[in-house]
Amino acid sequence: MTSSASAGLSRLLFDGRYEQTHQDLRELLLDPVFDPREGLTMTEAGKLAYERSRAVHAGLERPREILADPWRLFALAEWPSLVDVSTFSLLMVHYNLAFGTVLEHGDREDLKDLCDELDRLDSFSPYMATELGYGNNVAALRTEAVYDPATETFVLNTPDALAQKYMSYSGFRDVPKLAVVMARLKADGKDHGVYPFLVRISDGNGLCEGVHAAPCPEKPVQGLDNGLTWFDHVRVPRRQLLHGDMGGFDDDGVFRPASGNLRKRFLRAMNRILPGRLCVSSAATGAGRASVYIALRFAARRLTNAPGRKDLPVIEYRSHQLALYTALSRTYAMTLLLNHAKREFTAVPPDAVPAELNDLVSITKALATWEMTEVIAVCRERCGAQGIFSANRIADYGSLLQGLVTAEGDSQVLLATTAGQIIARYGDGDGAGPAPAPDPAGRDLGDPAFLAAAVRHREAELLREAAARMADDTGDRTYFEAWNGTVNTGLEMARARGVRIALERLADAVGTLEDETARTALGLLAALYGLTELRRDSGWYLARGVLTTEQVEGLPRAADELCARLVPYTDALIDGFNLSPELLRAPIAADDYVTAFQERTGAFGPPAAAAGTAAAAAVAEGS
To answer: How many CA atoms, within 13 angstroms, populate the side-chain half-sphere of residue 302?
Structure first.
C-alpha cells in the first residue's frame, strides 16, 4: 500500500516526468566522484565542484540539447546540488545564464567555434552582469564597450571601481573561462544601452591581457572562485557582440539598434533571468525535500525518553511533529506551486511572456526560496547537533539557500517589484477580482477549500487596500512617498497570492490521486499548510470575520491533531521524493544511523547491536 501511495505522490511531485527527465540525473549522482571528501580547503572544495560539474556534463546530453528542453534544464538545477551545493551555481550559470544567452542572441555561423567550445565545456562561461555599485539595478551598469570602426573591435573597459563585475567566477585562473559580459554599447558617440558580449577571461594559463580579478571573501561551505573582475581596454572582436534581434551592423559598418527603447532592449538581452528564477526555485525545493527527508528519517530512529517510558523515537513528541510536518507541508506546497509555474512557462513562446506569467514566476521564486530557507533551518535545528555537520547535508543546504534568496533577483526586491506591477494593473483585468469572505460558521478548520477561500479573500483585500493607497491624491505626496507607504502591504498581497495558488494546487491534487492512502495523506498535508498560513495572520482573519474567536483559539489544537494523523503516512510522503540514504550519503538518514556515523568519522563506539539505547543515541548525536 505504501509503495502504491509513494508512486502516486512521486508522479505528482515530478509532474509525471520522473522517468523521462529526472531519473538518469539521480543515478548519475551515485558515481563515486560525488562521494564525500573530508578535510578539503575551500579552494580544494571549489576545484572539486568544477570536476563534478564536468562529470555531470559528460554524463548527459550536450548543453544545447538541454536548453532546448526547459523541463530538462529545471531537473538539472534540482539534483546535483543535493550532493555538492556548489555545482548548482557552476552548472546553472554556464547552462542557463551564459550559454543560454549565447544561443539566444549569438547562435550564428561566425560564432560556431565559440558556441561549440562552450557546448563541449572546454571552457566554463561566467555571467558578468552585476556590478559592485549597481547590485539590483543592472540596467544602470557602467562597464562600457566602445566600438572602434578602424579595427572592427570593441574596447571593453571598466571606468571606475563601482563598475567592477561582482560575484562572477574569475578567481581560479587555471580554469578556461569564456564569459558573457553585459556592457554598455557605445558607437558613433551614442549610448545604445546594455548588450551581451562574449569575452575570453582566462585560457587555462592565467587571465587574458587587460583582464584583472580579485577574489571575494570566503563564503561558508561553498569554495567557489567568486571575484571582482575589471577590464582595462580589452579588445573584443566585433563578431562577439551578441546582438540577436536587438540590432546589428549595416553594410557600411554602422551599428543600428532595433526599434524600441533602451529598457525594452535591456530586458530582451537579460531574458535568461526568467527561466533562471525557475531553476533557482527548483534547487530550493529540491534542497527542502532532501532536508525534510533526512530530518524525518532521523526523527523516527533517534531515541529519547518520556514520562513513564524509557525509550521512544523523538517524532512521538507533538512539538517535533509540528515542526517537521509543517516543514513537509510547505515543501509539498512549494513543489506544486513550482510545477504550476513551470507548466505555465513552457506553454508560451519565450518571446511572448504575458505579465501574469512574469508575476507567477517571480512570486514562485521569492516564496519558494523564503519558505525553503525556513524549512531547512527548522530541519537543521530538529536534528540537534547532528544537523550542524556538513556530512549530514542540511547545514550545507542552508548555505545554498542563502545564495538562492539573492540569485536572479533579490527575493524581497523582486516581490516588491512584482507587487507594484500587479497594483498598477488593478482594475484592468488583473485577474484577482473580488473574493467575498467565506462564512466561518460551522466550517471545518481541516477543509482545504475553506482555507483556500480565506487566503483568496486576504489576497483580494490587500490588493484593494494597496491600490487605494496608491490612488489616494488627498495629500501632497511624491510617487516614492506613495509607494513607500504601500510597499509592505503590496509584499503581503503578493505573498498571499503565491500561498493561495500553492494551496489551491495542493487541494486540487488530492482528487487526482488514485491511491486512497496517498489521497488521505495529501489531504491532511494540504489542511496543515492552509492552517499554518491562517495561524500566521490569525488576527487579520479574526478582525474581518473570516474566523471566529473559537476557531482562532482552536488553531493550535487543530494543527497538533493533523500532525498526529500524519505520522502513519510519513514513509509514503517522503518516499515520493525518490531520495535514498545511498544517494544523499547523510549518516543520519541511514537505517542504522549510529553505525553510519561511526563509519564516517572512524570513531570507536558501541557495537550496532547495543546502539539502540537512548544513551548510545545521545553519544552518537553529540548531544
So the answer is: 26
Q: Any idea what DSSP says for residue 408?
A: T
Q: Report CA-CA distances (Å) from 421 to 360, 463, 488, 489, 490.
A: 12, 11, 14, 14, 10
Residue with the larger pLDDT of the pair 148 and 431:
148
Q: What angle do CA 357, 433, 424 make, to 5 degrees?
A: 60
The answer to whether residue 524 scores a pLDDT higher than 80 is: yes
How many other CB atoms sit within 10 Å of the CB of residue 605? 15
Q: Could you report the per-residue pLDDT of 55-104, keeping only the tens digit for each?
A: 999 999 999 999 999 999 999 999 999 999 999 999 999 999 999 999 99
CA dist 399 and 218 (Å) reads 12
In whole angstroms, what is the distance from residue 436 CA to residue 280 CA? Answer: 35
In whole angstroms, what is the distance from residue 107 CA to residue 244 CA?
8
Which letter does DSSP use for residue 32 in this model? G
Whether the pLDDT of residue 194 is over 60: the answer is yes
Residue with cell 531519473: 23
Integer angstrom CA distances of residue 56 from 82, 225, 276, 581: 13, 19, 19, 20
Q: What is the mean pLDDT of residues 33-50?
A: 94
Q: Tell me the CA distances in angstroms from 203 to 126, 179, 196, 439, one per residue in order.
A: 13, 11, 20, 67
Place of cell 542563502: 402
Classify each residue of 500-510 as buried b or exposed e, where b means 16 or more C-beta atoms within 10 Å of its C-beta: bbbbbbbbebb
Q: How confident is the prediction for the chain on average, in pLDDT?
A: 93
pTM of the model: 0.94
SS3 state of residue 350 = coil
The C-alpha atoms of residue 338 and residue 341 are separated, in whole angstroms, by: 5
pLDDT of residue 598: 86
Provide DSSP, 180-247: EEEEEEEETTEEEEEEEEEEEEE-SSSBPTTEEEEEPPP-SS----EEEEEESSEEEEGGGB--TTSE
d(CA 333, CA 339): 10
What distance in Å separates the CA atoms of residue 97 and residue 103, rounded to the nearest whole number? 10
Q: What is the Cα–Cα distance from 156 to 105, expressed in whole angstroms?
A: 19
> What whole-number distance in Å separates Cα of residue 439 and Cα of residue 309?
45
354: left (phi over 0), alpha (psi -120 to 50) or beta: beta
Phi, psi of 188 (to 5 degrees): 55, 35
Pair type for strands 177-187 and 127-128: parallel
Q: How many residues does the chain have?
A: 623
Q: Which of 372, 382, 393, 377 is nearest to 299 (CA)?
A: 382
- 25, 47 Cβ separation under 8 angstroms: no
CA atoms lying within 13 Å on the CB side of residue 569: 25
**Cell 505579465, residue located:** 355
pLDDT tens digit string along 555-578? 999 999 999 999 999 999 999 999
Rounded to the nearest 5°, which phi and psi values hold at 236?
Answer: -120, 120
144/156 Cα distance (integer angstroms): 6
Are 578 and 14 contacting, i.e. CB atoms less than 8 angstroms apart?
yes
